[in-house]
Write a structure and sequence with these properties.
414 residues, alpha+beta, BirA Bifunctional Protein, domain 2, eight-stranded mixed beta sheet, five-stranded mixed beta sheet, 21% strand, elongated
Length: 414
RNA sequence: GCGGGUGUAGCUCAGUUGGUUAGAGCGCCAGGUUGUGGUCCUGGAUGUCGUCGGUUCGAAUCCGAUCACUCGCCCCA
């Protein structure tokens, strides 16, 4: 196939069969979010590069090698690699600190220049939420439990585990970072190459290294929970107690860290083992420092994002679309189109072919999944009637045209 | 960015030690039935064998490059 006719690497077309699952995931997520009082926000899919570079962390992988950045005139712009930075920017731009607390839901495409794999694309879609302005750990409980309820609503409860950890407050993090470096430094040469680099730049990330030797070393390392300030410990205890009170199963994973710099306190991940190397399906955490750091009023926040493609892959089948009624005109096709027009105006989904003999049209009706076929023949037309055929049972009967709409409407509401 | 695997019809795949017009199933189209679908029967169409180059009398088959997909690493949704 010519290069021109191929989609760009890591991008995919979503055909109707795909969008059915895709929309089901998005719509379910939003329906659940609405029950928690969220409104939808739509921010641009590109921002000034600074918006991402400053907030995600200059050393994060996303910023250093995964951004789609381009220049227009003087401006450096970047296709959004994730949603939180843009929402935070919109919060500041629109002066929304007047409306706190604020609950925002978003959905849409994200872009990361990574090597594609199963469950990883260069353009992918996320649904996500941000809850701004509440410092209480109860906000964390609500946000995490909402993620769980959403996965439950998608029927994925049995395929997913929740892991949770705390990154503590600033003091806890500094203390822990020092303790960790002090422990690892003497073993620097036994660490993997990547981890040696991380030791200087972002030692916390060594914790979730997949290198076997690293894992052995890390197994004995000090854990975050040892270094928590009393306040940070109390915060985390309330979060876990809250989840327990709501009956949400989770495991505390002290090795869980997040790749982006803006997280503090609660970090969590919903994972599955059904997607190969890409186990994370929904993840997030608290980011109290983010908005202040971007130049806005100091505002606490917590949120999560979920990968729509990954969730779609876990989904068995999306709910089937509404079954249409098929119109099969034998003679006057325009009269049939007019009838279709009246039925559609009444809210009935009508499929009508424009060519072919009766056999072809009936086959088309069956393929469209139609429940009924309305056959418009000359004989019936003369009597002001149509033939209504039940395509499931094969039974058919002549029906006066004025009774048709009533019958179909009654059927539909069954 | 690094390493492994794979590219043949719309889809899933066969194709022998290199040998004429490259196959199957499903799907699609047509007919059996010009007013009756889902079953059945009959017939039909469809390929730059991913692309470019090389070896050879001859390449889907061997070699090289390239592109894409895929699995893993890194990292993440």
């Amino acid at each position: 196939m010519s290069t021109l006719l191929q989609p760009v690497r890591g991008t995919h077309d979503l055909l109707p069969e795909d969008t059915r699952r895709h929309r089901h995931v998005e719509d379910t997520a939003f329906a659940v979010a609405r029950r928690y009082g969220y409104g939808e926000v739509v921010t641009p899919i590109f921002e000034f590069t600074e918006v991402f570079a400053r907030t995600l962390g200059e050393t994060s992988d996303v910023v250093t090698k995964e951004m789609y950045t381009f220049t227009m005139g003087e401006d450096s712009l970047t296709l959004r690699p994730e949603g939180t930075a843009g929402v935070a920017r919109a919060f500041i731009s629109n002066g929304l600190s007047q409306s706190l607390p604020l609950k925002l839901f978003y959905r849409g495409p994200m872009f990361r220049h990574e090597r594609p794999q199963k469950g990883r694309q260069r353009q992918f879609h996320q649904v996500g939420i941000e809850f701004l302005g509440v410092e209480s750990p109860l906000a964390d409980v609500e946000v995490v439990s909402m993620g769980w309820r959403m996965l439950e609503a998608l029927g994925l409860k049995g395929k997913i585990q929740l892991e949770i950890n705390t990154l503590g407050d600033l003091d806890s993090r500094t203390a822990y970072r020092n303790a960790l470096v002090a422990y690892l430094e003497p073993m620097r040469l036994t660490l993997s190459e990547e981890s040696r680099a991380r030791l200087d730049k972002n030692p916390l990330r060594i914790l979730d290294s997949k290198d076997e030797e690293d894992r052995r070393i890390v197994a004995q390392a000090p854990v975050m929970t040892d270094c928590l300030t009393p306040a940070a410990r109390e915060f985390f205890d309330q979060v876990t107690a809250g989840l327990t009170a709501l009956g949400i199963p989770f495991t505390v994973n002290p090795k869980l860290v997040r790749g982006l710099d803006y997280y503090c306190h609660t970090a969590f991940e919903f994972t599955t083992d059904a997607l190969g190397a890409q186990g994370t399906v929904l993840a997030g955490g608290r980011y109290d420092g983010l908005i202040g750091q971007m130049g806005g009023p100091a505002t606490p926040g917590i949120g999560w994002a979920a990968g729509v493609e990954r969730l779609s892959m876990l989904l068995g089948e999306a709910p089937p679309p509404e079954r249409p009624v098929a119109l099969v005109p034998m003679g006057d096709a325009m009269a049939a189109l007019a009838l279709a027009d009246r039925l559609r105006a009444a809210g009935i989904s009508v499929d009508m072919g424009f060519s072919g003999n009766m056999k072809k049209r009936m086959a088309r009706a069956a393929k469209a999944g139609a429940r009924f076929a309305i056959i418009l023949g000359e004989d019936e037309a003369a009597r002001g009637a149509v033939t209504l055929r039940d395509l499931d049972s094969g039974e058919q009967a002549e029906v006066a045209e004025e009774r048709l709409l009533g019958l179909l409407t009654a059927q539909k509401s069954e």
